[in-house]
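Changelog-adjacent note: as of this version, every example in the card shows the full chain rather than a window. The one below runs 493 residues end to end.
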Amino acid sequence: MRHKIAVFDFASCEGCELQIANLEEEILELIDLVDVVSFREVMKEHSDDYDIAFVEGSINRPIDAERLKEIRERAKILIALGDCATTGCINKLRNEWPESEVLAEVYPGAKKQMKDNEFFDVFPTKAINEVVDVDFYIRGCPVRKEQVLYYIKRLYDMPPTTNKDLDFGIILRDMEIDNRSVIKYNPRKCILCRRCVHICQDVMGIDALGIVEKGSEAIISTPLDIGFDANGCIRCGQCISTCPVGALGNRSPVETLAMEVKKQKLSIALDSVALTAFVQKHTALRTMGPELAERYVIAGLRSVGFRKVLQYDYYLARSREMDEASDAPVLASWCRAAQNYFTERELNTLQVKPENSPWSLLLEDESKGICLLSPCSAMKEVEEFNYVLTSANLIELFKQLECDLEFMDPEQAAYDGKTVQNGFQHPGVPGSKNGFGIRKDLMEKLSAANLPRGPVNVYPCLAGCVNGGGTPPTIDEMDIEQRIDWLHELRGV
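Full-length structure tokens:
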């Protein structure tokens, strides 16, 4: 008898279901073995007549728990599909916060709509075996498509038996967040994948962090627990960009800034790279032309209380002009992380002139009440700024102040003060003249190069500023190319 299979999903990204769809030619083999009677992601038909149910996702609401129980009653065999179903995975991290805080974060200003509404009725996230009995577990985030095919063949060839695979739970470690450095570390989120260790040690050659302790006590830290900044960290934030679970991040100034900005005494300067990362994450702005989207953001910043909105690219251009006048090769002053690399290691390969930096020039013009939107984690250590925001911080700020950019008037929105003209190329974008990436072999590259006088661009971040630690994390080449194309269109390059 052919088994009838149904695939269901709860709170998840549905990536595990997509893996089934990605079987491609092998899906023909699957169809020869079983009848798929319900699979919302790939077919319109639905039937409640099934004997094997694949369930993806964690359980977050009472109505979801009831639906899962109905699925369990109909299915002879129930299979947990992927890590969200088997352990609760990332969704379960929210259990560390009260439900009221979680709802307020996701649905700000929606208290009236949430009252007595079953769709907002949540409880602590649960793996599906905390609600019903599970027969098999297919782990992975996402699962491997070959595993799914293997289980279907296994059930086809063997009499159905249950609990052939053992369950295991998640142990939430009660450890404090490490806030000592510009880059913060949350050991309760960390899954010890070691991506940050690999990029810091093997790719960048910085060696500021690593795995310490053993077993369930293992965390990302430094020898003698001295903090990242005290161990040679240059604050580039590439560990943040590669962390898949948000265990590494930047300190957020939004809670304090949201109260202070209403006094209308603060100005803000916008770095165009941070601006493109912000626009890329905004559903409405990313469909507009870059110049129009930029005006919407400027209008929004004025509406929430910023006194002036300045163009940081103007100061980047001035910084370049000052470096061009040098009689010797100098470290281009626009990158704070590169300055950290050279000054903390006392390297004399290139001259370092902090006074030529764009932030120094900006702070000369605007000495009081100045904030910066930057793609760079290292800029958060410049104490002369009142606040340094990342693109993610700006998203959070607009949300907290309930500012909807789509309702702004962009017609009269323009930068205050001087701006660069069309044709300006952001020095933090790969492809700039005399560009080098910080890697283990940087010194050999610089020594072998016949460097001309003037600025030498050094890129700590793997794709320059466009994937710096202050931008929404990505190593996706398409995301990076879209950011670069947006910048070039904005500045007419």
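Structural remarks: Residues 39 and 133 are 21 Å apart (CA to CA).
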